[in-house]
Amino acid sequence: MKKIVLTGGGSAGHVTPNLALISQLKKEGWEIHYIGTEDGIEKSIISKVDVTYHSIHAGKLRRYLSLENITDPFRVVKGMLEAFSIIKKLTPNVIFSKGGFVTVPVVLAGWMNRIPVIIHESDMTPGLANKLSSPFATAICTNFPEAAKNLPKNKAFYTGTPIRRELLMGDFDKGLNITDFVKDKPVIMVMGGSLGSKNLNRIIREILPKLLEDFQVVHICGKGNVDTSLKALKGYKQFEYVNEEQPHIFKIANVVVSRAGANSISEFLVLKLPNILIPLSTKASRGDQILNAKSFEKQGFSKMLIEEEIDGKKLYDNIIEIYKNRKIYIDNMGKEKVPDGTTEIMKLIRKYEEQPSA
């Protein structure tokens, strides 16, 4: 039986694309193993599918001063030894890495065991983990065609990102039942990433009275960010996080207000959902979401707002504008030929499964 090791963690965006691959790999009869951390979000997500999970230690590779920069290298070394032992024992045909700091020891262990390693970069420019992993990768998949210029030419493949098939199977009536919404009033979906955005949560709640005059609002607000005082508010539904419900909520949404994580915006594009993107600022990130959002705005798929510049009025006005002009955005997205990420990556997995790494 063909055997594969998947890895990726630290955020939902480094895990959920693997779910799309897992579904296809199961159909093709692969034996699937997943390597992640013991306490990361990846374990809670992967535990819901029938996959053998292996835990290793991982340290965060920070660009800033922190006392943990002293201890984390030891965690990285420990994780490396653990990953090497797991890979040597499993001897998979291929390793697929979605990114996040847990993946670095796994990629290195794969290279040391001469296992072909495929990594995927969601953003326009590679993150630190993928920068460290790239020299040891057999192939590097990209979500944006422009991303190839930042990668070794002989390794880069424009594949798009794997999208879960379930996202394309949303049911309108189920979406209404999940949210307790009515069918004859448009829906704004607000999502601030897997951890939520306190600033976006605050601004949306400030303008709720005005928004609810014309719209219903479903708000994915992040863990611990539900406002219990608003639970009884008609036309407003809050969730900390959604998984199985997501396809059905997408189905009823007319406009999405979101961070600009690469996986999320790829889903908006495939689903042709008009959207407002509020990327993480350079104060909280390396600026990858800003590049993602600028690319989508330039192509006419999205409207980008700078977080430091928005207030309730500006956000409300832009929601109204996007809603009124939603057909323009839908038409623009409909013209884009988007690669099927799952299909393209599976081609590479099959290509390298029988080839030992150089």
UniProtKB/TrEMBL annotation:
It is a peripheral membrane protein. InterPro entries: GlcNAc_MurG, Glyco_trans_28_C, GlycoTrans_28_N. The keyword GTP-binding does not apply. Pathway: Cell wall biogenesis; peptidoglycan biosynthesis. GO terms for biological process: carbohydrate metabolic process; cell division; cell wall organization; peptidoglycan biosynthetic process; regulation of cell shape. Its EC number is 2.4.1.227. It is an enzyme of class 2 (transferase). UDP-N-acetyl-alpha-D-glucosamine binds at residues 11-13, 164, 194, 289. It catalyses: di-trans,octa-cis-undecaprenyl diphospho-N-acetyl-alpha-D-muramoyl-L-alanyl-D-glutamyl-meso-2,6-diaminopimeloyl-D-alanyl-D-alanine + UDP-N-acetyl-alpha-D-glucosamine = di-trans,octa-cis-undecaprenyl diphospho-[N-acetyl-alpha-D-glucosaminyl-(1->4)]-N-acetyl-alpha-D-muramoyl-L-alanyl-D-glutamyl-meso-2,6-diaminopimeloyl-D-alanyl-D-alanine + UDP + H(+). PANTHER family: UDP-N-ACETYLGLUCOSAMINE--N-ACETYLMURAMYL-(PENTAPEPTIDE) PYROPHOSPHORYL-UNDECAPRENOL N-ACETYLGLUCOSAMINE TRANSFERASE (PTHR21015:SF27), UDP-N-ACETYLGLUCOSAMINE--N-ACETYLMURAMYL-(PENTAPEPTIDE) PYROPHOSPHORYL-UNDECAPRENOL N-ACETYLGLUCOSAMINE TRANSFERASE 1 (PTHR21015). This is UDP-N-acetylglucosamine--N-acetylmuramyl-(pentapeptide) pyrophosphoryl-undecaprenol N-acetylglucosamine transferase.
